[in-house]
Specification:
It comes from Rhizobium rosettiformans. This is Ferritin-like metal-binding protein YciE. 86% of the residues lie in helices and 0% in strands. The protein has 169 residues and is an all-alpha fold. The protein has one domain: Ferritin (Up-down Bundle).
Length: 169
Amino acid sequence: MVEDRRSLFVTGLKNAHAMENQAVSIIKPQLKRIENYPQVARRLEQHLQETENQMKRIEDILGSLDEDHSAMKDWMLSAGGSMAAIGHSMADDEILKNSIANFAFENYEIAAYNSLLIMAEMGGFQSAMAALRENLSEEENMARWLSENLREVTAEFVTRREAGESAKV
């Protein structure tokens, strides 16, 4: 039974690494396109750094278990994230689509880290819990920021649109 729990935990960690890789592939194209929403760009830059650190923490946990991340999972989710970013870039309300999708994705990550923490606890992987909690905290902070700033971003989008200015990004 212990081996089953270890296997489940390792699979969850590999999935989390791929999920964070996907987050990078979502954030980077947004950063390249944002011009009119500097507060969003600043927070995305910060979260990109957090995400890269989260991937490193997961790699460290995997390494402590003599495991490695899954290049195939990383590639697959990264491709999916890139496609989503491309799809949003064609929308007139790109900044809103990105803001809403980012909020949803952050909540997905929160759920994934909560699940990983339960698996770590059940499997006796206490040494992994601090890093997972740190990742969870960063995701919760980002989700909170996105939620709190959705009103400002939406209002700015509408105001720019009414004034005939570029409202996309």
